[in-house]
Amino acid sequence: MLMAAMVVGVAVSAQQDSTAVGRKKVAVVLSGGGAKGMAHIGVLKVLERAGIPIDIVTGTSMGSIIGGLYAIGYNANVIDSVARAQDWSYVISDKEDMRNQSLRDRLKEFTYIFTTGLTIGKSDLTKGGLIKGKNLAELFQQLCTGYTDSLDFSKDLPIPFACVATNIIDNAEVDFHSGRLPQAMRASMSIPGAFAPVRDGEKVLVDGGLKNNYPADIAREMGADIIIGVTVQGDPKVADQMGGTMSIISQIVDVNCKNKYEENLAFTDLHVRVNTKGYGSASFSSAAIDTLIRRGEEEGMRHWDELIALKERIGIDSTFRPTILQPLRPQAMTEKYHVVSYSFENMTPQAERFLQQKFHLQQNDSIDAKVAQQITTTMRMDLFYQTAECRFVPDKDGVRVIISAGNRKTVQLHAAVRYDTEEHASVQLAAEIPLKTATPMNADITLRLGKRIMAQGAWTFHPRHFTRPTVSYTYRHNDVDAYIKGEHDYSVLYDQHQAELLPINYNARNFNFQIGLRWDYIHYSDRLVSDRADNVIALDNEHYFSYRGRMTYNNEDNWIFPTRGTRVKAEYAYVTDNFTQLDGQQGMHDLSAHWRMSFTIGKRFTLQPMIYGRVLFTDTVYPIFGSIIGGEWFGHYVEQQMPFAGIGNMEYVKKNFIAAQLQAQQRIGSNHYVLLRVAAGQQGDKFTEIFDNKTLIGGQIAYYYNTIVGPLGASLGYSNHTKKLHFMLNLGFEF
Asked: Among 256-265, 370-379, 408-417, where is mean pLDDT lowest?
């Protein structure tokens, strides 16, 4: 997530101007409205341009967020930059920040369409909404750096501020005039059913719009003489407009938002109602944000003459401009703060020691927002806390760092589903179970149902730094169809039992290195597998021991449709049946690798060259280890499978195979992609003879629409190896 977190000096001191000239106090009131509230930013730009002083700010829901930031010194242009800089699909989700996590953890983000953490046996308010809101809370925490401790919003903020939430325990309006600003903003926008409520003592708080969506009365109580109000509500929806879940939730909130609305409008001196037609509470796309901010600015300019006339009522002339006490000073995520002390809340001693050792907290006398974000991500992923917070409390000598945690997860659940024209429907379920050990440890259980059945149990240790030793057992039930030059040659049904020990499992930001030992046992259910009478193959049950080393590097900017970055994977295995030999001879050496880079030309067109291959050093190749090409992914049906454009089914090739592929990727709009792939490959029984055989050539064209549940689209390909067109329909992430 690109953060434009800024701790700013006092930007506009309307209070000073009021004292100096004896003018009337002006309040700006910003309504709720979800994403539609982005229009407030445009109106604030016009108020600044007109030289309107702002002495008080009140708001509800999105109005509380924009109003709260304005009250601590962000001007309208800076808020505009902050809003545009966010990846809102991440911010309004519960996804983890994967930039500093292991590749395995990042892969989960592009496998599972549903993830949730459960705390069994404890009261957990995070169950009260589709979204827990942890990323929103963390964003507010960073944007409000310097104002995260308990404060009096009228005395301790540059501009007095208040916002509204609703206590669902007694259906009472809760007006925040003090407390922790990030928590108040988060509570004010907790849309029921969409975001989990916020617990504040005995109160359970949700969106303030249910009681007071336009809190002009609060501004009047705070001493405002002049009220400028901004609302973004559209016309009431009709039955035909009730489509998805968010539209229904939005309608429920909008209907309830009429509380106090008319009476608050009655004493508003200037009402700016922005036209947000065509957009809803969840319209957080870049294009929508741009349009909403622009509409807010346009509507503000329509009231320009009224604003200039209002200055006379305020008691200032038309040339008046509020005093700028201190210019805005943007601070990056890496700006250091001197640490006075560290303290921990609601954490076990083991968890405290883990964080102290991993991030060297006792030795570090400074911290920045980026490290704070890494700490909270580690607390959720390595220490399994549902929520985590790292806040800076100003002190005369620096900041006090308070690290606090919510309930610890009992289990983390994942679910994935996909469909394609070859395997048809597949479902994958997974559970991560943290174990109560001194060194963090978790058990992963995965079950895949479909044509390929898989069950896996893995135990991973999380010592400090980035090493994660792992022990795993996997059972696979495979029903494999093999083809020769496009013709179905045989089918094989087998069970595979696999146990792996990885004492070395080193993880850095984009890098993973593993060394370990693996045992495989293959049990064939059907020994007579060929469709051709002249090619009956008898397969015996087999077991193997292999020594393995793997290296993976991936810094691509997108797992599915990258526009820049590099992906590299290389693996070496020495395969035996008795730890030293294979069938009485030297073991088999198995080397495979692929390398891909992405180069973007312009803003939408990307070229992706890739080279890959597999080399086997052995006289005899057992069928279970034979080189296979076909499909779109590495290791999809069997682990030695390599993709090849134009070939859809699994095709056996000679034991040594190398290939090159060039893919052109064109993005259309925000989420539509057209892909064109061409590939060429060489094969041979001996590596020295690999170029003596016919060159395999294939091509493929594909269209995909990128959605939150994975790419949806189709591909059509042809190769001179199969001499057949191959069509494939894919819905969902690959697994």
From this structure: 256-265
Angle at CA of residue 16, ends 12 and 20, nearest 5°: 135
By percentage, how much of the chain surpasses pLDDT 90? 48
Contact criterion met (CB below 8 Å) for 10 and 157: no
Q: Which contiguous run of DSSP H or E holds residue 75?
A: none
The reported pTM is: 0.72
Distance separating alpha carbons of residues 103 and 107, to the nearest angstrom: 6
Amino acid 148: pLDDT: 82
Over residues 272-297, the mean pLDDT reads 91
* Site of tokens 């989990």: 196
Helix (H) or strand (E) holding 675: strand 672-684
Distance CA 61, CA 208 (A): 6
Both tokens assigned to 257? 């938002």
**In the predicted model, what is the mean pLDDT of the chain?**
85
Q: How far is CA 132 from CA 107, 334, 610, in A?
A: 22, 27, 40
Please give the single-letter amino acid code of residue 21. V
CA 47, CA 55: separation in Å to the nearest integer? 13
Whole-number Å distance between alpha carbons of 543 and 496: 10
Q: Which residue has the tokens 């016919």?
A: 694
Phi, psi of 99, deg, nearest 5: -65, -30
> Whose CA is closest to 166, among 248, 259, 68, 66?
259
Paired with 666 in beta bridges are 605, 674
| Cα gap 646→701, rounded to integer Å | 9
DSSP H or E run through 198: strand 198-200
